[in-house]
Amino acid sequence: MRKERKHRTAEEKVVILRRHLLDKVPLSDLCEEHGLQPTVFYRWQKEFFESGASAFRVSPPAQYLKTFTRRSRIASPDSIGLLD
């Protein structure tokens, strides 16, 4: 009989990764505790490190985006007759 898959949130995955990488909990212990295959853990780790740079990207403040959007609507090419 096949076991039903457990879908974990991003936060749960990070907690499991952190326990191995920072707390040095052996992977075999984590896999047994959480019912994981090691290949699943390594896929999470790969995805985590590949997307890690996005945590350091600076996004513009929300106020700037609101102002920019409002201005672009006011001065859009069709509103000033450039597309006619």
Oligomer: single chain
Topology pattern, helix = H, strand = E: HHHH
Q: Biggest sheet, in brief?
A: none
Integer count of domains: 1
Tally of separate helices: 4
Structure description:
- The chain is an all-alpha fold.
- It has one domain (10-78).
- It has four helices and no strands.
- It has helices at 10-21, 27-34, 38-50, 62-74.
- The longest helix is centred in the middle third of the chain and has 13 residues, at 38-50.
- It is elongated and about 55 Å long.
- The model has no long low-confidence stretch (mean pLDDT 81).
List the helices and strands and how they pair.
Blueprint: H1 10-21, H2 27-34, H3 38-50, H4 62-74
Give the structure's gist in a few sentences.
With 84 residues, the chain is mainly α. The chain is built from four helices and no strands.
Features:
single chain, 84 residues, mainly alpha, 4 helices
